[in-house]
Amino acid sequence: MGIIEKIKEIEAEMARTQKNKATEYHLGQLKAKIAKLRTQLLEPPKGSSGAGEGFEVTKYGHGRVALIGFPSVGKSTLLTMLTGTHSEAASYEFTTLTCIPGIIHYNDTKIQLLDLPGIIEGASEGKGRGRQVIAVSKSSDIVLMILDASKSEGHRQILTKELEAVGLRLNKRPPQIYFRKKKTGGISFNSTMPLTHVDEKLCYQILHEYKIHNAEVLFREDATVDDLIDVIEGNRKYMKCIYVYNKIDVIGIDDVDKLARQVNSVVISCNLKLNLDRLLAKMWEEMGLVRVYTKPQGQQPDFSDPVVLSADRGGCSVEDFCNHIHRSLVKDVKYVLVWGISARHYPQHCGLGHVLQDEDVVQIVKKKEREDGGRGRFKSHSTAPARISDREKKAPLKT
Ligand SMILES: Nc1nc2c(ncn2[C@@H]2O[C@H](COP(=O)(O)OP(=O)(O)OP(=O)(O)O)[C@@H](O)[C@H]2O)c(=O)[nH]1
Ligand SMILES: [K+]
Ligand SMILES: [Mg+2]
């Protein structure tokens, strides 16, 4: 029996089993069995190297965004509109067969947008180009799930289920469960609060299914069996996802209004160029990129060429900023001067641990170098920290 058949069989058994206190342990065990099989399914076939032909696109720019959706929802049309790179669009399904990259220029950063083939129900089991599409999605920073506004709401659930089946968790944070395997000592099970979904026996049983007999488990929230399995599997990817409803030109205004009110959702029309700026703004917000402008001593910062940091990718401290400029820079830094949101006053003297915010300006003061800062134009700002305004960006900085 193949892996997919085994999964199907267990799913059928779960469907047959009544949910009650008496069956809860058995159901938990079945869930763990399915999770293990799915992980097996994800292992790349022997001899293959990662993504697959037509899907090996080099990362470029300050972030990567994947377009995921059923066939013919308008993914390629959107890529062409936002990036200027042409990706074939047509009224028939599966027009796109490979991964097509484009670049969005936004807020002085470059964001790589990836058009992908449409995926269908069963993608997680390898139907269509499911596997490749999913692998590329996992390599991106956020996902735009493109949906046809005129089609059933069920599509969003089907896609979410497919992505969950391969370990993607959309708009969720990792479960607050501390888990550590040990060599000896048995299993220690603790929680910081009363648990309503999982008890010690169920936890033991799940761990047993994974042949784990020595471990420390601490629940810091009232998590579920699925959460526990996610933590044990350890290969889950937690990603932001924006639900993008395209083709609102073909539905009524009341329906548009309903879709637009859902969380993490943006309604657009590629045909009428409606709301694309809102989509870009939302995308930017969710990516959480932090632009930092370097100010050479005695000179203007270059406001067109930021160092771009991200909390998810490498961090946003002064040290991360320095490493971005040059690996060997950190050891020469005495301190830095910071203007912008993260500074309590202008300029603030900060160390390597200071966390920077979007649009901060930083001047590096090196060891054995005469300090020239502190006479900057922003020094007079002794009030609450504020964003460097557009006016200030254009005005000369006198240091
Ligand atoms: N009415 C309407 N049609 C649209 C809109 N955007 C795209 N389309 C049409 O939808 C069809 C499919 O567009 P594509 O861009 O090829 O869709 P896709 O998601 O890339 O499709 P596959 O690559 O086959 O998965 C084309 O006929 C487009 O002209 C829109 O905003 N409104
Ligand atoms: K199409
Ligand atoms: Mg396409």
TrEMBL record:
Comp. bias regions, Basic and acidic residues: 388-399
Residue ranges constituting the OBG-type G domain according to the UniProt record: 63-288
Location of region: Disordered: 368-399
Alphabetized InterPro entries for the sequence: Beta-grasp_dom_sf, DRG, G_OBG, GTP-bd, GTP-binding_2, GTP1-OBG_CS, P-loop_NTPase, Small_GTP-bd
Gene3D superfamilies tied to this protein: 3.10.20.30, 6.10.140.1070
Domain TGS: start-end pairs: 288-366
Keywords: GTP-binding, Nucleotide-binding
Single Gene Ontology MF annotation: GTP binding
Domain of life where this protein originates: Eukaryota
NCBIfam families reported in the protein's UniProt record: small_GTP (TIGR00231)
PANTHER family: DEVELOPMENTALLY-REGULATED GTP-BINDING PROTEIN 2
Protein name: Developmentally-regulated G-protein 2
Organism this protein belongs to: Ilex paraguariensis
